[in-house]
Design goal:
It is built from 4 helices and 3 strands; from the N terminus they run H-E-H-H-E-E-H. A hairpin with a 5-residue loop joins strand 2 and strand 3. The model has no long low-confidence stretch (mean pLDDT 78).
Amino acid sequence: METLTPIQKEIVTALEQMKEKSLITEANLAKKVRENAKISGKNKAGICLKDLEVCIEYLGENNQLPYALHLNSANDILIKKENRGNCWMGMRKNVVSLVRSLSLF
């Protein structure tokens, strides 16, 4: 984990602890990171998408934990266990449909 920032290391640790789950919401992951790091404060603080992307790539390359990012219809970021080839595919489809729906207005 030498190339990761301290917060990215905490995210990786939380993802490894939650590896039994097939679907992790960004909010649940942020809660786990706050618990592990013993951070008190606003519970609405989330995780930066850029940090999350780096952590998922790191886990895929080093620990063989294949996660993919998805965006649901409520624009919630979901982390799902998937085949390595499908990473970002679900999120890309949702973003394209979201852009199309926004362009209609």
